[in-house]
Every structure is written in structure tokens, then in C-alpha cells.
Specification:
There is one protein chain. The chain is α/β, with parallel strands linked by helices and 698 residues long. The chain has three domains: 101 residues, Nucleic acid-binding proteins (OB fold (Dihydrolipoamide Acetyltransferase, E2P), Beta Barrel); 215 residues, 3-Layer(aba) Sandwich (Rossmann fold), CATH 3.40.50; 194 residues, 3-Layer(aba) Sandwich (Rossmann fold), CATH 3.40.50. The chain is 38% helix and 19% strand. It is built from 21 helices and 26 strands. The strands form six sheets. Strands 14-15-13-16-19-12-20 form a seven-stranded parallel beta sheet, sandwiched between helices. Strands 21-26-25-22-24-23 form a six-stranded parallel beta sheet, sandwiched between helices. A five-stranded mixed β-barrel has the order 2-4-5-7-6. A hairpin with a 4-residue loop joins strand 6 and strand 7. It starts with 17 loop residues before the first helix and ends with a helix. The chain binds adenosine-5'-diphosphate and magnesium ion. The site of adenosine-5'-diphosphate has 16 residues, from helix 10.
Length: 698
């Protein structure tokens, strides 16, 4: 028999067949360790037992009841015509009785036997006098039964239940009894719980206090790992090497642009040129061929002109005879970049290609060959660029746009595509990442500790401010009229409505989200805009489907785009002049700013309307946090300014929490609640890293 380790596949556990393992994979659970690190998203407080006379409909409650009479099972056919069975049974305590209903669980007649007691937990329905529960959880209750007060609730997928996961986790925890992942002195210095205790208590807490300690220990570990990973990245950078380019005639490039660069764009380009050439004003060029690779993050508000900054870096790289790549998160964005950069690149004889998931096989084959032969200088594409098949002859620069949509791993996969220099050793490309998510500098330093940071905090001149209004329900009719008028003038509009309910499994979210956006869109079509063309898009849609709808909109074939979640990042539809955000109170400041950034991209006067039931009159005059946010939006247009307010108002946790941050998906750490842990682990990571380096150099 082979030894079971934490890295063994889950199939080593009792009760995990190949088919169940396939289901678990959907939850990103592959190994025993993945399973144990699949933390509950909350707990059912089943320990708070109520008497029947205390139950009130609409509340989730726990009660201990004795079965009053045998289970009655009847056969019915469901609406869809499918045959099903219903089990009804009554149970009571000293204060009253509850009618219980289950579906398709005929075996219950052997379980819920008259006279036996169970702890039931679930939503109470019916009335105060005749309480009911439908499909409650039930656990046998008898003297000495050890029922957990806090029962874990897990993120699930179809075919996997919380009960199943609990059982498996209990089994898997056995392997952790003698394991500790942190050094003893760190555990004692920071007063942390041991690993086994922490894992046991995060899944099956003895009490709320223990659960908190468990969470703290696991968050500490997660943050420390994160910080160490960042430093390792930075170090790898220090040891790798990239081409040291020479400075071409940049004036030729600047001269080919239709506009003057802003000061912030120029300064950013200068930093990039310096990173890649190691020479600048007053710094003599050293002509040895290699230097350490650039690892630079460019943060710039939407519309601040990051693309052209990237193009300058591409120009430098390609004029030195090396290849550049630009990776973006969606096909439509790739196509837009390709269309806007191609003329410029052609002018400078830089051979440019586009590679996405929908590039035809024959075309793709040609591109891959040309790339390998060095015949393509610059390639723009989606995730397709990080496939192993994509091989560069001589990669000099790897750019990731809208990097918050990618994980560290994807970003590094692109910049990890190396070349062999003449000396037979590998050369890394320089790395440039661009993000339209303004983050205050202090936080950026923690989060992007492995990168140098440039900030473009200036918009090109002549940009029109997007007029922003926050309005209440009473303005709805007028907003619709206004929308109609703008569309009548040839413009396009976005209407964003947040998901009414966030559900757990992604399938459900998909269906619900689809339904709400689709329904709302249908309703608008029917009742409000019968003569306009409307479409809807939803965050959980398949990328290809989403791209299709976005493309139709960007080509001007849809008047109004209804969307449930944040509209595709970075998409440029200059003709869109109105952004209406429904239930704007559900969005954070930075999100609202991102949404607003979708309009005001062309020469047309643009508007953003924040609608919210929180606003009682016509305008946001109240003191509620939402109304304060709305006023900040109406009064400010700089993303960095808004990010600072956001941080101030909500604290760092929410600030990041609601945003999609590939690299910030912590399983348990919460950057708001755990800011102290963030700082502690940052210091600790610095010490550990330094000690390691000292040891190495000995
Ligand atoms: P983002 O930073 O959001 O990626 P883009 O690079 O897409 O912004 O630029 C937005 C628009 O601004 C583009 O149409 C671009 O041509 C234009 N632009 C960029 N820089 C300048 C500038 N210095 N002056 C005028 N227009 C500019
Ligand atoms: Mg952009």
C-alpha cells in the first residue's frame, strides 16, 4: 500500500469514486489538501435550539422534535410532468407541532420513526400557529449524541452536498494530526493556533472564539505565503537576465502620433526606456548586452492612454530586433488593440499579428511558424498566447493589459517564455503590466511588491467630463425619456443592473443572473423601448457568447446594452454616451468609477446616471453612506481621488474585496479585517527572505 500524503488525490478517501472526484474538481479540489483547504463560507448555528412556540415563519431555525406519527408518502407529478413522491410527517415538542415535508425521500419512513427525536434545521414557513418546514436538515438526537452547534456551510456544486463534504473533511483531517506548516518560533511569537487545531476548528468549530483563532492562524499563513511568493518573484527577476536594448530614435515614433503625449505618459515611457536600456539622461550607456528584466506596473485611469505607452515599449523592443507580445483578457479587446495599433506599427515596419481563440487553424499554424521564425515582430492576443505551442524566436518584451483580470501565474507564463542567447543561456523578456484599476500607492506597494510602479495620473487634454447624476425612483420616467432622446441622436447606452441575489453554485448564478438580466431586458423592450434594439450580457456567460454580444454593441448594432455585472473591461465604444446604473447603492465607489469609464470615450457629451431607491427625493441629499458615495461620484472624475475616498470610507478590505483581482483571491484572509496581519506578515517575509539570501551568500 502506498503512503497517503496531503498531495494524494482525493480518491484515496473512502467514499470518493472517480465520478465523485470529477465533481469535486469543479470546486478546485484535486488533492486531500485541496479538500481540507476548501473552507466553509459560513456556519449554520444549529446550536440555538428554539421551542416550537418560538418559531416564526420566514426565519431559519433549529428545533428538537419527536416524530408524532408515521411518514406518509404520496405520488404526484410535478409541473414538468415528472413523477415524484412527497413525504409528510408531523413532529412535536412540549410547546407545539410542526408539519414537515420532504421530496423523493421514501427511505425516510425507516428513519423518521414515530417516537424518535431529531434536531431539525431549516426555513420555517406556514403560519405562527401552524409552522411548517420543507426539506429541513435532520440529525438523530438521543442522550449522548454529540451534535455540532456550528455546522459548516460550503461552497458547493451540483451533486456535492455539505454533508458529504463534512464527512470527507473529517476523514482527511486525520492526516494532519502530526503536521505543522509554520516554524515553532513563529507560532509562539505571534500566538498562533497549531495547524491541526486550526483546520479542525475552521471546519467544525468548538465555539465562536476557537473559530476566530483558527481563522487568524490560517489567514496569517496564507498572507505569509503570499508575501513570500511576491519576494521570490522579485528575486527571480534579480537573477534572470534580459536583453539590454539600445535607444532608437524615439522622435521618429513620437512624430508619427496624431497627438502630443501627456506629461504623465512621457514620464512613464521614460521609466520604461530606462528599465529596458539602463541608460537615460546623464547615465552613460553600458554596452554589455544583458541587464535585469524590467518588471513594471503601469497604473492609469481609464482613458489615460496606456495603450500608446505600451506601443512605445513595443517600438523600442522591435527596433532592437526582438519580439514583443501583448496579452489582453478578451477577444474583443484584442481585436480593438490590433485595429488601433496596426496602422502605427505598419508605418514603422513592425510586422504585427493577432492570435485569439477564434483564429482559424490554418491561420494559426502560419502565425505560430512565423513567430518561431522571427518573422512576426509583435503579436497581440488573448490567453491563446500562453499556450505551450506559442514559441518566440527572440522574445524581448511581454505586456499584459488589464492585468487584474489575470492571475500572477498567467502573467508570468507569458513573461516566462524565454529565448536562448548566443551563449546558450536563456534570456527573459522584459515585463510590462497595465492596469486600469487605480489603487492608492501605499496599498499598491504591498500588493504589487514584486513590481516597480508607474502612475499615469493625467488625462489627455480636451477630455470632456462625464456629467454624473444620482437620482431617485421618481426620476425613472425622465431617465427613460432621456435615454430615448440620446439614442434618437445616434448614441448608444448601457444599463447596468446588479444581480438581485448572489447564489452559491456557479450554475445557479448563471441561470439566475441570466434570468434577471434577460427578464429586465425583455421588460424594457416590451414596456419602455419597443422601437429600440436591446441586448443583454451577463458576467457568468461563456466568454465567446459575451464577446459576440459586446462586438455587436461595439459595431453599433445595438442601441442599449443591459448587463448584470461589470461590463467587459477596457472595451472602447466611443459612441456610447450614457451609462445608467440601477441599484447603484450596491456598488462600491471604485466599481462605479469603472462603470462610468465605459462612456465619455469619444467626442460626444456623455452622462452617467446613478439610480437608487436609497435616494428619497430627486437627488442624493441625505447622509446615508450610499448617498455620500454618490456625491463623491458626482463631484470627482479622477480614479485615484475616488480610490482614496473609497479606501477611507470602506477600509482596505471592501476596497479589494468586491473587485476581481486575479492575484488577490485569498481563501480566508480578508485584507480589511486582517490589515494588521498583512503588515505583520510583510515584515516577517522581509526578514525570512533576507536570512535566506544571507545563507546563500555564505
Ligand atoms: P486606457 O488607458 O484606458 O487603455 P487608451 O490607451 O485606450 O486608454 O486611450 C484612450 C483614448 O485616448 C484612445 O483613443 C487614444 O488614442 C487617446 N489618447 C491617448 N493618449 C492621448 C493623448 N496624449 N492625447 C490625445 N488622445 C490620446
Ligand atoms: Mg486600455
Amino acid at each position: 500500500m502506498s503512503v497517503i500524503t496531503l498531495q494524494s488525490p482525493v480518491t484515496v478517501l473512502y467514499g470518493v469514486s472517480e465520478s465523485r472526484a470529477k465533481l469535486l474538481e469543479k470546486l478546485d479540489i484535486f488533492t486531500v489538501d485541496d479538500l481540507v483547504r476548501h473552507y466553509p463560507r459560513g456556519y449554520e448555528n444549529r446550536g440555538m435550539v428554539k421551542n416550537v412556540c418560538e418559531l416564526s415563519p420566514g426565519e431559519v431555525s433549529s428545533c428538537i422534535l419527536e416524530i408524532s406519527s408515521p411518514v406518509k408518502s404520496t405520488r404526484i407529478s410535478s409541473k414538468a410532468g415528472r413523477a415524484m413522491t412527497v413525504q409528510k410527517v408531523t413532529a412535536h415538542d412540549e410547546t407545539g407541532s410542526v408539519a414537515l415535508t420532504f421530496f423523493n425521500q421514501e427511505f425516510l419512513k425507516n428513519t423518521l420513526v414515530t417516537g424518535r427525536k431529531f434536531r431539525f434545521y431549516g426555513m420555517v414557513s406556514g403560519s405562527f400557529l401552524n409552522p411548517q418546514m420543507t426539506s429541513p436538515a435532520y440529525e438523530p438526537y438521543y442522550p449522548g449524541a454529540e451534535l455540532d452547534d456550528l455546522v459548516p456551510v460550503y461552497p458547493l456544486t451540483a451533486g456535492i452536498t455539505c454533508k458529504m463534504l463534512s464527512k470527507l473533511v473529517k476523514q482527511a483531517l486525520e492526516y494532519y494530526k502530526n503536521i505543522e506548516s509554520l516554524p515553532k518560533d513563529i507560532i509562539s511569537e505571534y500566538g498562533l493556533m497549531g495547524l491541526y487545531d486550526a483546520l479542525s476548528n475552521i471546519h467544525f468549530p468548538d465555539d465562536a472564539e476557537k473559530m476566530k483563532d483558527a481563522r487568524r492562524r490560517l489567514a496569517f499563513e496564507e498572507l505569509l505565503e503570499f508575501q513570500l511568493k511576491l519576494r521570490a518573484l522579485k528575486n527571480r527577476n534579480a537573477t534572470g537576465r534580459a536583453y539590454k536594448f539600445s535607444v532608437p530614435d524615439m522622435n521618429e515614433f513620437y512624430g508619427s502620433l496624431e497627438y502630443e503625449l501627456t506629461g504623465a505618459q512621457k514620464a512613464t515611457i521614460d521609466s520604461i526606456l530606462y528599465d529596458m536600456t539602463r541608460c537615460g539622461e546623464g547615465v552613460p550607456c553600458d554596452l554589455s548586452r544583458f541587464t535585469q528584466p524590467m518588471r513594471r506596473l503601469v497604473q492609469g485611469d481609464v482613458g489615460s492612454g496606456k495603450t500608446i505607452v505600451a506601443a512605445a515599449a513595443v517600438y523600442l523592443c522591435c527596433k532592437n530586433g526582438a519580439q514583443a507580445s501583448l496579452m489582453v483578457p478578451t477577444e474583443i479587446l484584442a481585436e480593438q488593440h490590433y485595429a488601433s495599433l496596426l496602422p502605427l506599427m505598419e508605418q514603422h515596419r513592425i510586422a504585427t499579428a493577432l492570435l485569439t481563440g477564434s483564429t482559424k487553424a490554418a491561420e494559426k499554424k502560419k502565425i505560430l511558424e512565423a513567430l518561431r521564425d522571427g518573422k512576426i515582430d509583435f503579436i497581440i492576443g488573448t490567453h491563446a498566447l500562453i499556450e505551450d505551442k506559442v514559441v518566440f524566436a527572440n522574445p524581448g518584451l511581454a505586456i499584459t493589459d488589464e492585468q487584474h483580470r489575470f492571475g500572477v501565474r498567467q502573467r508570468d507564463k507569458l513573461s516566462g517564455k524565454t529565448a536562448l542567447a548566443e551563449d546558450g543561456k536563456s534570456v527573459l523578456p522584459h515585463m510590462l503590466v497595465m492596469s486600469a484599476t487605480p489603487i492608492p500607492r501605499t496599498l499598491a506597494m504591498i500588493l504589487y511588491g514584486d513590481l516597480d510602479i508607474s502612475i499615469i495620473d493625467e488625462l489627455p487634454p480636451g477630455r470632456q467630463k462625464v456629467d454624473t447624476f444620482a437620482v431617485g425612483e421618481s426620476m425613472r420616467e425622465r431617465i427613460y425619456k432621456f435615454t430615448e432622446k440620446l439614442v434618437g441622436e445616434g448614441r448608444q447606452a448601457y444599463i447596468v443592473c446588479p444581480l438581485a441575489q448572489e447564489t452559491e453554485t456557479s450554475d445557479e448564478a448563471y441561470e439566475n443572473g441570466l434570468k434577471s438580466a434577460a427578464e429586465y431586458c425583455e421588460q424594457l423592450k416590451r414596456e419602455v423601448f419597443p422601437d429600440l434594439s436591446l441586448d443583454f450580457v451577463h458576467g457568468k456567460m461563456k466568454p465567446a457568447e459575451k464577446d459576440k454580444i459586446m462586438k455587436k454593441f461595439s459595431e453599433g448594432n445595438t442601441d442599449i446594452l443591459v448587463s448584470t455585472t461589470v461590463i467587459e473591461v477596457g472595451v472602447n465604444v466611443p459612441n456610447a454616451a450614457l451609462m445608467v446604473v440601477e441599484n447603484a447603492e450596491r456598488f462600491g465607489l471604485s466599481q462605479l468609477h469603472q462603470l462610468r469609464g465605459r462612456v465619455g470615450r469619444g467626442s460626444h457629451k456623455s452622462y452617467c446616471v446613478l439610480m437608487s431607491p436609497v435616494i428619497k427625493g430627486q437627488q442624493a441629499k441625505g447622509d446615508s453612506p450610499s448617498e455620500k458615495r454618490f456625491r463623491i461620484m458626482c463631484e470627482n472624475s479622477s480614479g485615484f481621488k475616488i480610490a482614496e475616498y473609497d479606501l477611507e470610507l470602506r477600509g482596505p478590505g471592501d476596497f479589494f474585496g468586491r473587485r476581481q483581482h486575479g492575484e488577490l483571491e485569498f481563501k480566508i484572509a480578508d485584507l480589511a479585517a486582517d490589515m494588521k496581519l498583512v503588515e505583520d506578515t510583510k515584515k516577517l517575509a522581509d526578514i525570512i527572505t533576507k536570512n535566506k539570501q544571507k545563507e546563500k551568500s555564505k
